[in-house]
Amino acid sequence: MATQRILDFLATRRPSGPCLVVDLDVVRDNFHAFRKALPESKIYYAVKANPAPEILRLLASLGSSFDTASVAEIEMALDAGAPAERISYGNTIKKERDVARAYELGIRLFAVDCVEEVEKVARAAPGSRVFCRVLTDGEGAEWPLSRKFGCVPAMAVDVLRHAALLGLDAYGVSFHVGSQQTDLDAWDRALTDARQVFATLADEGIVLRMVNMGGGFPTRYLKDVPAAQAYGEAIFGALSKHFGNRIPETIIEPGRGMVGNAGVIKSEVVLISKKADNDNVRWVYLDIGKFGGLAETMDEAIRYPIVTGRDADAKAPCVLAGPTCDSADVMYEKTPYPLPLSLTIGDEVLIEGTGAYTTTYSAVAFNGFEPLRSYVI
Q1: Which one from 19, 132, 318, 325 is the annotated catalytic residue?
Q2: pLDDT band at 139 (very low <50, low <70, confident <90, very high)
Q3: Nearest 5 degrees, angle CA 254-CA 102-CA 107?
Q4: Which end of the chain has fewer CB atoms surrounding its CB within 10 Å, N or C?
Q5: Which residues form the Orn/DAP/Arg decarboxylase 2 N-terminal domain (predicted)?
């Protein structure tokens, strides 16, 4: 939802072209909500969701840690004031020279999901802590994660055993229940696997100490989602169920849940047309599309709330598309989007809940369109 601060900014600044505006007050509120919901868990903000320096500086000042996917993101977190001990290199796919650079920068916490990655870390970052990512099914997520990351629990045991053998600190396991996860039981299912890895290695004298419960915390789009407190209660209940009174250290990695509802994209209607005289469905083209930052409309997975100045008028379904010369640049066609019949060329629309995964998905210059502008207030 557009805050009054965002509306005032757009009214006074009148930025031209599509742009994202992020309200830092909302980010601050979200951080405190996560801290209250899971007070015993360390918060590692997923930098990939939105790496705006202003956001990183705010979170660093609040005491947040950071989950990074590259050396560039590590450097962003350091520049924002986060000490190296509060930064995790959470990508399981890393060049060995990047591991070495991260180690040189002081990073000592690395994600792995195979023996080969463990061997890279052992060579380039000796003695570091590693956690192994375990595969999850992602059921209940609107943006499920593929089998690209993680391994089955039995292999995670082999991976962490090998890490200990090579002198690394076998620190724990991680999982990700899928982005925009609305099933409160998803963490319970994943913690079943985590507990299995802990127990198997404990029998061999390797004592794991940490569970990284990943992200997946949703932001509100068109449907209501549970509050942070509900997730906290469900996750704490699952931890108690599986680990009893010996709950390990825990980490959460909110990205979308931290910044998604803090941002609004201002866009403009470029064209409204039909494909035939007797066509009942209008095509509405905006000056932003999949290549301008709305990549998560792929397969219509994320349906953003769209607000217009004509929302009191009658609405009808339309196909919503972007401005580029690419046939894939269509956001909503399978399930058309209801927009006012009075909507006209030149009207501005606000696309809400767009604080996460928009600026970083925006193409550099596809068709000559500039990357999505961002303002953080």
Answers
A1: 325
A2: low
A3: 60
A4: N
A5: 26-259
User: Buried b vs exposed e over 153-181: b needs ≥16 C-beta within 10 Å?
Assistant: bebbbebbbbbbebebebbbbbbbbbbbb
pLDDT, one tens digit per residue, over 183-216 is: 778 888 889 999 999 999 999 999 999 999 987 7
Write down the pLDDT at residue 138: 52
Asked whether residue 136 carries a pLDDT value surpassing 90, the answer given is no
> Residues 6 or more apart from 67 whose CB is under 8 A from it?
44, 45, 46, 47, 88, 90, 215, 253, 255
- In the chain, CATH 2.40.37.10 covers 261-376
Q: Where in the chain is the domain with CATH 3.20.20.10?
A: 90-254
* Calpha distance 33→65 (Å, rounded): 16
**What pLDDT sits at residue 117?**
97
CATH no. of 261-376: 2.40.37.10
Question: In 310-320, which positions are buried (b, 16+ CB within 10 angstroms) versus exposed (e)?
Answer: beeeebeebbb
Q: Does domain 90-254 sit in CATH 3.20.20.10?
A: yes
Length of the chain (residues): 377
Q: Give the count of beta carbons closer than 10 Å to the beta carbon of residue 274.
A: 13
Q: What is the pTM of this model?
A: 0.94
Dihedral (Cα; 111, 235, 3, 300), 10-degree rounding? 70
